[in-house]
Every structure is written in structure tokens, then in C-alpha cells.
Specification:
β1 and β2 (118-119) form a beta hairpin. It is built from 16 helices and two strands. α8 packs across α10 (224-254) and α10 (224-254) crosses α12. It is mainly α and 360 residues long. The protein has a two-stranded antiparallel sheet with strand order 1-2. The chain has two domains: 19-104, no CATH class; 122-353, MetI-like fold (Orthogonal Bundle).
Amino acid sequence: MLRFLLGRVAVTILTALCLTFAIFALTNLKPNLVKLAKTEAESRMTDEEVERWIVRNGYARPVLLRYGEWLGVMPGWEGGGTAAIPPRCKRAVPDGAEIPTFCGVLQGYFGFSTTFKADVSAIIGRALGLTGWLMLWVLVVMIPISLLMGVLAGMREGSRLDRTLSTIAIATTATPEYVSGVVLIVLLASATLGVSPILAEMGWIGTKTLFMGTATSAMDNITFWNFALPVTTIALYGTGYIARMTRASMAEVMTAQYIRTARLKGLSFGAVVLRHALRNALIAPFTVIMLQFTWLLNGVVIVETLFNYKGFGWTIVQGAGNNDIELLMGCSVVAVIVVLVTQLISDVGYALLNPRIRVS
């Protein structure tokens, strides 16, 4: 197991370097640099002025060298005192402090956001905290419901319960978040449509709407009324997917020979499911659940934008829309780390859940 972990960690580090370099090269393409120059300097700059700005601020140097500076393995560019934007290492420390030689991601400095005019690490830290709460409540709702649906459907394959739960799971998975989110807002958070006007007219609610159609207030104080709709929107999509995978795995396990042997020995159906079938049936759903962390972190862009919740997905949209290279790179690092770490945990979990799986 130790050899497996060391090998996986080495592959993870190498993959992270390759992915971050590819993202760095793509975000630093010439059109992006031209747009950055016109955003930071003057939108009516001529082509010659743009070229001079790019050279003056160090963006014309080899991309591999600049990637090394961003990573923190190469000395930071000093700029010679003629740069329009302060050199990277100068921004990494307060005014008057000694400027370090290395100032990259490995030193804990992710750069300076040209959109928010603040350190990228502070922006991402706040955004991750907000998205973390959203992810937590989505997982709390999604995992138990999806596993229960999948197990119940897979226990008796082909039954009426199986067909009903499978239909619900397929319907929720086939409905994108931007559709289900809008439907939930119209039904539960509209003052003119849905059930809210009816409940208000009957005097059952003291406000205009049953739920709040925006989650902006949840950034400061999470309540059931301002957080239920975004959580439900995300959970609906993920629940059906996990439930389908659990159902397929459970149905396959229930036809295994050892299950039949256990039944012939006189064990009750419930005991067979809980003691023998459930553990093996959860191997495939475990991987799917681990993949949900990546999807939740990067796939909540639509939901956070729809409900105006300024988390990690919303931050990525702002960085991409404003051509904020440093912010996009910082978000990319976080996303890459989450993907690779969850994959590593998934591989280790395979071996822990089923000792018959041997790590080569």
C-alpha cells in the first residue's frame, strides 16, 4: 500500500505540473495579453503601444520562464523599474518589506487580481468558504437520498418500486440545473407565480414568497429559506446520477452466487442485504460520490450565478469575463488539486472497501 501511495502521489504531482502549465500557456496567449493591456492601460491603445506595454511588463518573455516564476522555482522578475504593473514579488509583500527572490505558488503567493484589486489567495479563500458550505449541505441532502433510492431499486430489480425510482432518477438527471433552478424559483420564490401568492392570500405565510429567490444573504447568514433552493437545485441533478449507479451495482450484487447461498442458509432478506450485498454494492457509488466533489466545486457556476451566490464558481466566471489571468490561474490550481486528491482518495477507498482488489 505504501508503494502504491508513493506512486500515486508522484503521478499526481506530475499531472498537476502538466495541467497547470497547459492552463498557464492558454491563459497567456497573445489575444489575452492584448486584452489585459487595454484593460490595465488604455482601451484605445495602438498596436505598437500594446506591444510596448507587453514587453515593458514582462509578458513577452518565454512562457516556460514565466511559468517557473509563477510556480516559485525561478527568481521573480524585477522589471528594471520601468514596468507599468509592479513586479510580482513586490506585490507579494507589504510596502517597505524586503522583496523576496522567489514569490510563486510554492511560496504561498497566487498573484494579484486585476479585477478585484486584491490578493488572489484572499479572494479564492473566501469563495471556497462559501462554496464549501454549499457543497456540505448538498452532500448531506444528496448522498443519503440517492443511496437509499439506489438500494431500494436494486434490491428488487424489475419491481414497480424499481421502475418508479428509476424514472425519478432519470428525470432529475436529465434536467439541467439552469432548468430546475428556474422552475423552483417560479414555483416557490415568485410573488406572482407558483404557490407563494396562493399561500400569501390564504395567510399561511407572512412574506410575499415562500422561499428567497436569491442566496446573496446566505453569504452572511445561512437559513433554510435563503439556502434551500440552490441546495435543492444541485442535489436534484446529482441524486439521480448516484441513485442510478447504486441501483445498477446493487442489482448486479443481488444476483451473485454468495447472495443465493446466504438465502439458502436461511438468512432473512434484510440480513442478506445489510451484511453481504450492501458493502460490495457501494464500491461503484463510492467512486461516483468522490467525483461529485470535483463536479460541485467546478460545476456550480450556473447555480451560483443564478442565485447570485458569490462562491468559487461565480469567481471563475468573473475571472474569465474580465480576463483576470492571475485569478484564473489560482482557481485552476485549486480545481486541479481537488480533482487529483479526490481521485487518489477514490483509488485508496477501492482497496479499503474490497480487500480482494489488489494494488499492483
